[in-house]
Write a structure and sequence with these properties.
The structure is a homodimer. By secondary structure, the first copy, chain A, is an alpha/beta fold. Chain A has 13 helices and twelve strands. A six-stranded parallel β-sheet of chain A has the order 2-1-3-4-5-11, sandwiched between helices. In chain A, strands 7-6-8-9 form a four-stranded parallel β-sheet, with helices on both faces. Chain A has a two-stranded antiparallel sheet with strand order 10-12. In chain A, helix 1 crosses helix 3 and helix 5 crosses helix 13. Chain A is elongated and about 90 Å long. Chain A starts with a helix and ends in an 11-residue tail after the last strand. Chains A and B meet through helix 4, helix 5, strand 2 and helix 12 of A and helix 4, helix 5, strand 2 and helix 12 of B. Chain A binds a DNA duplex (16 and 16 nucleotides) through helix 1, helix 2 and helix 4.
Chain lengths: ~325, ~325
DNA sequence: CTGTTAGCGCCTTCAA
DNA sequence: TTGAAGGCGCTAACAG
């Protein structure tokens, strides 16, 4: 059934090794023989069996990606960047989904093994100490995308800059009373705390503009639209309410918009709102937000993986990707009062 | 470096075959030996090399999924259903993305080969004649999800029913002048024409209720929000404009909503709108729509694949999944005039 | 029940 | 330049 290298050899009247050489572009084949072999390959419509190649090479020709890709739309775009980079290489991509702590632990245990993948790209997780230890000794290179850890090469957006840009934008519009709503800085999933970095950028921007930082304008809570609604309501009921709110995610910004509506505040005339992520809904709702280079992060992660595979990555490298301010309709100049 | 079955055998003081038997739960091993082997396996933290297994078994232990998953959010949910079904099997899932005709053709050519995958699940594509021929002779079972073709086992939503439900809902609210906006029924990508089936349901519902069909209320155009905006504007400028519009996709429904707003029509008091798909934005925009069982379709597709792999699927089977009407805020009883 | 042996299809020395 | 032979790690007869 399956045609093998042996069939090709027979047809071309050469030894198997020669066929193998042709397949692998070895220079040790004379032009005439090469052509004869190539003709035989074409005629038999032969493709080398990947499994056999892998076993023989002692490589899996596979990159595993561990990602919360079903729950986070942003993961999909990153995966796309990886996929496109792998497309014209002999490497396959295996996507391991992670939605629960159990599955994450299981993946960390089962996937990063030399007989499963030649390299592992982890998206949006920061390994803890135990995981770090095991990942470092697993025998395959590990690269982090959308996370940061001193022990690993990583690619991550410039969250501080994102927080800075969002806040600066509001300040430039004349706002001084700027709220910040985010999820809690540390969470049980060990995610890198982006909202913390964004908060740093927020404070930097305030400071740079000489706007006093007011702790009562900063609230944290569980992530989600509902929770953000509550937090925003709280802020907007302050005696001296903020005139602008920067939410650390678009999802939370949606909650802010709803809170404003409930309180009869017009956006952006009464309240300016900035989100973060530029998820699909943001466009529909005309939300001003910060966009990061999702596709590029995956692409870059994959490129770094190939560097690692080639042995050109002896030290961990941290790459930072720029973010972009997307000004839409939920922010406006502060009304003179 | 890599510990093999041979190391285990040595440690347990048995032959390799015995280790293999234990690994594969063969009953031909005495309890004491089995335990000894298991102890050795545990001690060495041994895992059989998947590549070697595959080569030896002559199987890839891999299911390939060909899907437009980066461009269609719905694909992701279907993939999730497949992934979950494969999770506790020895099978890996390889996801092949397809965004262009070139890549689709390339995938159809390269992926469905016995040495690449044991089975192929194709999402949202209907093979044409040439493709059908090659898929049928490729040597691996092929299953269609979200598409239909007489030559293949398939899982698909009940589009006709979806169209029926949407239209019936509007009729029950008192509407008689109901528009239908969709993409063109046949497209160059060879997608199964869902909008055509939905149209059939639309007509059935009209007929069942004795509402006359008016061709001028049905327009087709390229898929997209913009295009739907144009089409809706056209319908709403008719001398006797529709009081309700059923769009064959949520994306198009968004265009309809915008058109209504531009014309100063209130939704739902002046115009009722029903979409299709229940994409994420639909919830935010409070859009009445039809939801299909995306996750279930993937799960079912994978289950059918296992049946095929077990040889229990001699004839193609067509499974139909129910759809669900999601009534939200964009539909209302027709104003008496 | 258990060990030995022969492949699975390919790559890679080692000789020729 | 080319061919023959061994081996990658595992499974599956085939003896014992």
């Amino acid at each position: 059934m399956a045609t093998t290298i042996r069939d090709v050899a027979a047809k071309a009247g050469v030894g198997l090794a020669t066929v193998s050489r042709v397949l692998n572009n070895s220079p040790l084949v004379s032009q005439p023989t090469r052509e004869r072999v190539q003709a035989a390959i074409a005629e038999l419509n032969f493709t080398p069996n990947p499994t056999a190649r892998r076993l023989s090479l002692g490589k899996t020709l596979t990159i595993a990606v561990i990602a919360p890709w079903f729950t986070r739309p942003s993961s999909v775009e990153r995966l796309r960047g990886i996929e496109q980079t792998l497309l014209d290489t002999p490497y396959d991509m295996i996507v391991v989904n992670v939605e629960t702590v159990e599955r994450r632990d299981r993946s960390f245990r089962e996937i990063p093994r030399p007989d499963r993948a030649d390299g592992v790209i982890i998206i949006s997780f920061t390994p803890n100490d135990a995981q770090t230890k095991s990942l470092l000794t697993c025998g395959v290179p590990v690269i982090l995308v959308d996370a940061r850890h001193p022990a690993f090469t990583s690619v991550m957006e410039d969250s501080v800059r994102g927080g800075y840009l969002a806040t600066q934008h509001l300040i430039q519009l004349g706002h001084q009373r700027i709220g910040y709503i985010s999820d809690v800085f540390e969470d049980p999933y060990n995610f890198t705390s982006r909202s913390r970095y964004r908060f740093d950028g927020y404070r930097e921007a305030l400071e740079a503009a000489g706007v006093p930082f007011r702790p009562e304008y900063c609230v944290q809570g569980e992530h989600g639209r509902e929770q953000a609604y509550q937090m925003a309501t709280q802020l907007l009921n302050l005696p001296e309410r903020p005139t602008a709110i920067f939410a650390a995610s678009d999802t939370q910004a949606l909650g802010v918009l709803e809170a404003a509506r409930s309180l009869g505040l017009q956006v952006p005339s009464d309240l300016s709102v900035v989100g973060y992520d530029d998820i699909e809904v943001a466009g529909y709702l005309n939300l001003t937000t910060i966009r990061q280079l999702l596709f590029a992060s995956g692409k870059r992660g994959a490129e770094l993986m190939f560097e690692a595979l080639d042995g050109n990555l002896t030290e961990p490298v941290d790459e930072t990707l720029p973010v972009e301010m997307i000004v839409r309709g939920t922010t406006a100049r502060l009304n003179a009062n």
